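Pasting as-is:
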Amino acid sequence: MRSNTVLEQIFAMVVFACITTEGYINSIHSSEAKCIFNQNDSACQYAVGIGVIAFLACVAFLVLDVYVPFMSNAQERKYAVMADLGFSGAWTFLWFVCFCLLASQWGRTHDVRGVPMDAARATVAFSFFSIATWGILTYFALGRFRRGVHEVTIPTYTEPPPDHHTPYPPTYAPTSYNPTTYTPTTYTAYPSNVPDVHQQPTFTPNIQPQGDTGYQPPTY
């Protein structure tokens, strides 16, 4: 989802690392450490806060990049792109404020004795680079959001208008019925010259033999 998150992490690390390690020095007349940017502690604290939050946000968006392809809900992917767009736009503006603040306070710093010049200039320079990189992220996030608006739509159900010309409701209207003509199946006649083995034989009467017709029983 994000194209150059590694650059934002590096730039953010440079900004808050330079200030936390070399951003505070004590003057000759005081033992209390002050910010190297015109002894304005608010400028150093603002830069450190912006840098730390930007670094952590880059790590969070890297994890989100791994999770986004597994999102089955299109609305969740849309919210992820919206979060990317909102955060990138906000941090582009905050880095711009940070650059203006540090550059202004560095220009008002007159006593540079003992001040680490390289750390101060690196902080201002990488604050400016962060404006460009976060601006590029905002541009790509805006493009993804515009594409997502056309691709992601919230499904809504609308009742169809009633049709007064049909006696049935439009949802349960019967489909058209096309009657078909039934054609009976014809079979070929069974050949008659083939003997039927399953046919029973015709009935024949039991005829007694003719030789015993003159016999009559004896009388006693």
